[in-house]
Specification:
Helix content: 25-40%
Strand order of the largest sheet: 4-3-2-1-5-6
CATH class of the largest domain: Alpha Beta
Structural class: alpha+beta
CATH topology of the largest domain: Creatine Amidinohydrolase
CATH architecture of the largest domain: Alpha-Beta Complex
Largest sheet: 6 strands, mixed
Strand content: 15-25%
Length: 595
């Protein structure tokens, strides 16, 4: 079936169930950013393959809402499908909620699978329907009715992240969580976010492509943790270890019935953004609920000393792999056939040589020429193109090592490139270095500091249509709250920077039909001096890969900006030169020379 046929079949199901609108998000039962194959319902119904977006199907129209990272990609993939693109955040474009308000008829019904819609979204949809004298229907998965060859839920095994990597036991983590529960007055804490649960239990798995996560739910009380999981995923040692920490294992889907029996004299802590609507609705109405951000979010974002030490090792490994790749790429382009996909595979080969490499930490972005103007382009056999001299190649990829996850973007000049490409590259380098140089007071958020990255763009009447940086998990989600760099407010990303957080710094410029440039380093947030004015903070770059000097226009840079680049390159040489020799060492010396 093509997309139009799938939408037609969905409308038949909607008519049968008397639904006027059906909402399909890009989520799983756990509000994950990236999902396993079983949960790619929005991709199935629209044909749009990007990671973020929401589809709304009515009897008269099919729409897809996505953000600025995906506008170009979505326009191409939706072409001819009959699905209309709604560019989120653009003038005159309604939100999903506003669209439902505008289009839902009197006494109408909004349908959705309540397991993949967050509590907050579900409540909003219910309010919209109620205002029209209608209702929501959240207990049927209509996509499942028409998706004949839908992939099954993952049955991949989990594994333990040893203490030498995790740095803190499950018992210790649960004790810290229970202290927070006491502080806020909660007896019970319900969790549906799989990265939080994996962090608590020091387990990782393979239920989401690229992300080492395990499908699970949890209910934490003061004396035990009820874990809802397919127990066949866990080996005997893991079961014994977590049971020793007070964990009781139940079948994966039993949580929906079990929460119905939470005593009404209990007080429940839950995160309205990170629990699904169906699960929330099964909690007895009389149970007092404290709605606030999951405490695990901040606890796991502040890395412990063991994690930081390991992450430094992972960054050196990946930086060495990138340097070897950069040399191979520059010396072989034009002499042998190199494509987007083969280049990406070659980088992973260099990573595997470093040891303890598990797999990529997210779907690689390997893009040449005009493809690099698509922020989240994913090469495929149908789009894979050859890399050629005279253009620039963007690689935004990451590695999952036992020592931690990496997320690194570099853009390389292949041979001699036009001046306008060098100018764009230099602008992005200035932006990246300016943000990394921040010295700031404790209490600052990403909204305070994002201007340091944007100013070089805004001074020239330019901008980039994505956040400047995000937190990075330790072998968990590559995008991790509750902190990030952006100039507009995002409710779940406004926590001040804390020492031990790791944040990316990744400005870019994207010229449709021509090229794109992005440069991304990871930054470790550190405490600086403390004086009568308070606690000062700073960022330490922990990514050690040259910014391609073949693409730099020194005439665009101030003396201070040149100094920042030279200082960064001196750091790169210091950190990775001990791991190189011969021609590779000389190559590093050439590409970290002072300008």
């Amino acid at each position: 079936m093509n997309v139009a046929e799938r939408v037609a079949k969905l409308r038949e199901q909607m008519a049968e169930k008397k639904m006027d609108a059906y909402v399909v998000p890009s989520a799983d039962n756990h509000q994950s950013e990236y999902v396993g194959e079983h949960f790619k319902a929005r991709e199935f119904i629209t044909g749009f393959t990007g990671s973020a977006g929401t589809a709304v199907i009515t009897q008269n129209e099919a729409g897809l809402w996505t953000d600025g990272r995906y506008f170009i990609q979505a326009e191409k993939e939706l072409s001819g499908s009959g699905v209309k693109l709604f560019k989120m955040g653009e003038p005159g474009v309604p939100t999903v909620a506003q669209y439902l308000k505008d289009t839902l008829p009197a006494n109408g019904t909004i349908g959705f699978d309540g397991r993949v819609i967050s509590m907050g979204e579900g409540q909003e949809f219910a309010a919209i329907a109620a205002a029209k004298g209608g209702a929501v229907n959240y207990d049927c998965d209509l996509i499942d009715e028409i998706w004949e060859d839908r992939p099954a839920l993952s049955e991949e095994p989990a594994f333990t992240l040893e203490m030498k990597y995790a740095g803190e036991s499950t018992q210790s983590k649960l004790a810290r969580i229970r202290e927070i529960m006491k502080e806020v007055g909660a007896d019970v804490h319900t969790l549906a976010t799989i990265d939080d649960i994996c962090w608590i239990l020091n387990i990782r798995g393979n239920d989401v492509e690229f992300f080492p996560l395990v499908l699970s739910y949890a209910v934490i009380t003061m004396d035990k943790m009820d874990l809802y999981i397919n127990e066949t995923k866990l080996d005997a040692d893991t079961v014994a270890r977590i049971k020793e920490a007070g964990v009781v294992i139940h079948p994966y889907n039993d949580i929906y019935e079990d929460v119905k029996s939470i005593p009404e004299d209990k007080t429940l802590l839950l995160d309205p953004v990170r629990i699904n609507y169906a699960l929330y609705n099964n909690i007895p109405a009389g149970v007092k609920k404290i709605e606030r951000q999951n405490p695990e979010l901040l606890l796991k974002a502040i890395k412990n000393e063991t994690e930081i030490e390991n992450i430094r090792k992972a960054q050196i490994k990946d930086s060495v792999a990138h340097l070897k790749f950069m040399k191979w790429l520059k010396e072989n382009v034009g002499k042998m056939t190199i494509t987007e996909m083969s280049a990406s595979d070659k980088l992973d080969e260099f990573r595997a040589e470093q040891g303890n490499f598990i797999r990529p930490s997210f779907e690689p972005i390997s893009s040449f020429g005009e493809h690099a103007a698509l922020c989240h382009y994913s090469s495929s056999p149908e789009t894979d193109v050859e890399l050629k001299e005279g253009g620039i190649f963007l690689t935004d990829t990451g590695a999952g090592f036992y020592e931690g996850s990496t997320d690194i973007t570099r853009t390389y000049a292949l041979g001699e490139i036009p001046q306008y490409m060098k100018d764009d590259f230099t602008l992005v380098a200035i932006s990246n270095l300016s943000l990394a140089d921040a010295k700031f007071m404790y209490g600052c958020t990403g909204m305070n500091l994002d201007i340091l990255a944007r100013k070089p763009f805004w001074d020239r009447g330019l901008n980039f249509n994505h956040g400047t940086g995000h937190g990075v998990g330790y072998l968990l989600n590559i995008h991790e709250g509750p902190t990030g760099f952006r100039w507009t407010a995002r409710e779940q990303e406004v926590h001040p920077f804390e020492a031990g957080m790791i944040i990316t710094d990744e400005p870019g410029i994207y010229i449709e039909g021509s090229h794109g440039v992005r440069l991304e380093n990871e930054l470790l947030c550190c405490k600086g001096e403390q004086n009568e004015y308070g606690q000062f903070m700073y960022f330490e770059p922990i990514t050690y890969v040259p910014m391609d000097l073949d693409a730099i226009n020194p005439d665009m840079m101030s003396e201070r900006e040149k100094e920042l680049l030279n200082n960064y390159h001196a750091l790169v040489f210091e950190k990775i030169s001990p791991y190189l020799e011969g021609e590779e060492l000389e190559f590093l010396r050439k590409y970290t020379r002072a300008i």
